[in-house]
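Hey, quick one: can you model this chain's 3D structure?
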Amino acid sequence: MKKFIQYIFSVIAGILLSFTTAFAGESPSTSTASESSGGFSMNVGYMTEYWFRGAFQQNSSYSFGADIESGNFYIGTWWARVGDSGGSSGGNGMEYDIYAGYNMTILGIPSYVGVTGYYYTDDWDRDYEEVNVGMDFGLFAIDGAIFGSYKGDGSNASSDYGHFTLSVPLGPVNYSYMTFTGGSLHSAAHELSYETSLAGFDVTGVVGANNDGGAGASPNSNQDTEYFNISVGMTF
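Sure thing. Here's the predicted structure for all 236 residues.
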């Protein structure tokens, strides 16, 4: 299974490279028209703090990405600034994600299955690869990471892991409960989020709380704590 997932990621990376290279050579006006008709889009964003699955990643992080959609299939990449190899709030390390999947309807329920790889420069963190599944039941939605695996480093062994998120819309606010379990990593977190549009930008505010396993970078100050962040982004 792991070799198959790694093969899938290598194919995805090749497709993304060919598409982004093709669009890079076009003029802005031509590129915009092609993106609209061909299902290609790009995004940029800024986060006052970057938290992922209840784990702290970085203060004041910027991000950018690209996505391709064709029918029910999608493929994309997303990059964000993280810290240096010491896991501090400084540094110029980058996280780069590669993902692909297929949207479908199962017994009238919107669903998807896909793969995601999380990789890091400057040895900031180990690499993570997973198979993702999700279903939206209307009153709530469930997203899960199955067949997840992270690679070992000098002091930590490789391990399989699992993750799931339960999301419940509460009027204008969305509530999420998420867990991550694998090897020595065991975490849970609760989040409330609110999304709106302002002057053409997508603005999201998040209030969250994790347990003593949801550390991420600089664990001593980010376990069993509450957090708040605002993100601003644009898709074009």
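One thing worth noting: Residues 2-235 form a domain with the Porin fold (CATH 2.40.160.40).
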